[in-house]
Amino acid sequence: MSARRIVLYFLAFGILWILGSDHLLALITSDVATLSALQSVKGLAFVGLSALLILVLGRLAERRHQRLQDETNRQRERLAHILEVTPAVLYTLKPHPTDPGQWTVDFVSQNVEDMTGHAPEVWAARHDFWQRHLHPEDLPRVLAAQARLAGCDTLHHEYRIRHADGSYRWVDDRLRLLRGADGRPLLLTGAWLDITDRKCAEQAIQASESRYHELFEVNPLPMWVFDLGTLRFMAVNEAAIAKYGYSREEFLSMSIEDIRPAEDVEHLRRTVNIHRQDGGYGYSGEWQHVRKDGTRFWVEITGHTLLRDGRPARLVLAQDITDRRQAEERSRLISQVFEATEEGIFITDAQNRFVSINRTFSRITGYSPEEVLGQTPALLKSGRQNRAFYAELWKQLNTEGRWEGEIWNRNKAGEVYPEWLAINAIKDERGQLQQFLGIFTETSSRKSAEERILRLANHDSLTDLPNRALLADRARVVLATARHQHLPVVLMHLNLDHFSAINESLGHEAGDQVLRELALRLTRCLEPEDTLCRLGGDDFILLLPGTAVGDVAQISVRLMDAVAQPFAVAGQDLRLSASIGAAEFPENGSDLTELSQAAESAVHLAKREGRNTVRVASRRLQEQVQETLALARDLRWVVERRELVLHYQAQLDTRSERVVGLEALVRWQHPQRGLVPPGRFIPIAEESGLIQEIGRWVLDEALRQMAAWRAAGLPVVPVAINLSVSQFRHPRLPEDVAEALRRHDLPAHLLELELTESVAMEDSDFTIARIAALKQLGVTLSIDDFGTGYSSLSYLKRFTVDKLKIDQSFVRGLAQSPQDEAIVATVINLARSLGLHTIAEGVETAEQLDFLRRHGCDEVQGFHFHRPAPAEAVAGLLSSETL
């Protein structure tokens, strides 16, 4: 009860008492003495009654106040309980007393410490504590949002706050601004909610969507999602579009029944019903599918049931197993023939141990597979044939790869029986023995067995084309007929360009698929009397009787067109090219060996001249092949016989024309042929594997000569040595270089190693590591013939090389070809921007020197200054005033 109400009650009581008591006393008595006594009693009664009234009113007020206090306490406890259980952090802010633009913490709930690691007292201590803990990336955005609060009175935004442990937590912040009657801000109330888990979930969803893109859209195998209710496609990836021939729009208007043969639709529907009931991930079997062009192929289906756009759907992956099915079918047929034939068949390994037998073998010999496998045919020896018989058998088998005749064997029961046995040696494409195939039978069934063996022995297992052995048989007949009737014959060698990249990037299965398809295409380009043979790898031989060299161009066009058609492999359309070499009988050879060598030489010429082209062999080319073989034989002894010599060509500073370096050039002093230039024998050395030995000799001899000049008191300059591909990739190259420098007591800066551009770009990661290892030795490194290949500038800047050498093919065109001038100027500028020196080789005229000098080339070498010379002549150069 309020004080005002108590006063009013007391006034009312007092007035009523005074007026009522006086009137009552007047009615009781008129005696003055009695009236005076009653007035005193009345006064005392008034005081007592007033005190009683005040007591009653006070007690009523206290009780009401206590009820209010109790309700307040209950509300406060309820609010405290709410604050304890709510995940949100509640807070109020009030304007800063001295800076109205800032806010200070008025109240913050205790759970702020759970969210941020900082107690409420810490938050209240500094008005900028909140701002100092915002994530730097969020700060500008949050401050801009806070500035807008003055105009809209409410704000909802999300940002990151730094926890006491240094991590960041995402908060959802909702604020409301309370204003006074004059419109000025009075209080800011807000709530924080920790949404870190939600943000992590969102990021996980984004990552999941990214993985979905990688696993679905970029998957090389066809994938799609279809509606389990309507069977309509909901999504397809690029591999499915490429494999089936439909566009994405066409797919999305179709159902999965449209890619199945009509006879499979009912089976498909039953399978889908199972997926509707069971769901989950599982294998869906092997099915025939139909492309847009109507062709059929086999696929293996796996799938997973999921929800997409709220509807049950199935994610499907399809793997083309057509080749596997065909191989399995062939294997099944072969197995059936193997087991069902009336002939006994056995296969042994190269050590003549049984690895497989058929049922007829067991029926005739009485031995089960378990008793035979791992044993040798000596298990069946009867003793009727002597040692000379078996020696002749093995002699013929080893020399001719085949033996056939009658032999007596003994079965498990000890009975001796005769059989007509044919044994064939099975070799791989390199001629290495793999297995022996034996068939023993009655005479009436021998012919069919021979035909099957011949098929195995004379055809390529991958493409089913004739192999080298069958080609040789047919070539003998064709060439004999051509020689007798004076008819032309052409032998062509076809080799795919960059085929190894397919095996390396897509796998050997993809490469095999290309070869099988190519064999079919090439076969369609030929006449029935022609022979197409696969030698191995990606090499094919075509034997064309009745074809003259004048017809090669037309035939080659057909062949190269067949190669150029896209190959659908692993969900991709591959486009290939081929290099072809042709040789004519008898101009380029009188037998298969000579024709093959001539055609192979022509193929190599086609490769060197840019690939995807045709070259025809000549007698001169064949003679070069023979000369190359002779050089290769002599080259094996060149180091031992001390036939190698080094010549040195000076390298000069472009400005001063002073000698600043030498390049060591190896020469071969052949006892019969005289001085053989490196361009003639270095490629042979690389091909034959002798380049390592020659390279080590060049390194050691160049350093030995420098040490000798140095010991003689001559001023020495760095010497440059070319490294071949195999030298550069040899694992011990850094150790060999370091050992040679130690052996001749020379500082590493006097040695420069030149790498060709193709070597440097062949395997960038390896090159970076190898160059770093060489640079640690202190030697100088340069890239030779720069600009003749294709350089990756992103890798070039990572190579710690010192110098770029401009190829003489560009230098030769200076002052004549604007294109060569532009290339040379670009290389010089590129080197300068990368902090590299440049040297131009093959400088032969003053005009070339002037151009190089004007454009800032650092060094030059060439006939304009000095020709390569032996060490004795170079010693005079080093001691002259030129240096």
TrEMBL record:
**What keywords does the record list, in alphabetical order?**
Membrane, Transmembrane, Transmembrane helix
Q: Where are the transmembrane segments?
A: 7-28
InterPro entries documented for this protein:
Biofilm_reg_signaling, EAL_dom, EAL_sf, GGDEF_dom, Nucleotide_cyclase, PAC, PAS, PAS-assoc_C
Xref: Gene3D superfamilies = 3.30.70.270, EAL domain (3.20.20.450), PAS domain (3.30.450.20)
SMART domains recorded: EAL (SM00052), GGDEF (SM00267), PAC (SM00086), PAS (SM00091)
Q: Which residues form the EAL domain?
A: 628-882
Ranges where the PAC domain occurs: 155-207, 283-333, 403-455
Q: Outline the extent of the PAS domain.
A: 208-279, 330-376
Keyword presence, Membrane: yes
Where does the GGDEF domain lie?
Answer: 487-619
This protein's source sits in the domain of life called: Bacteria
Protein name (Swiss-Prot/TrEMBL): EAL domain-containing protein
Please tell me the species this chain comes from.
Ideonella dechloratans
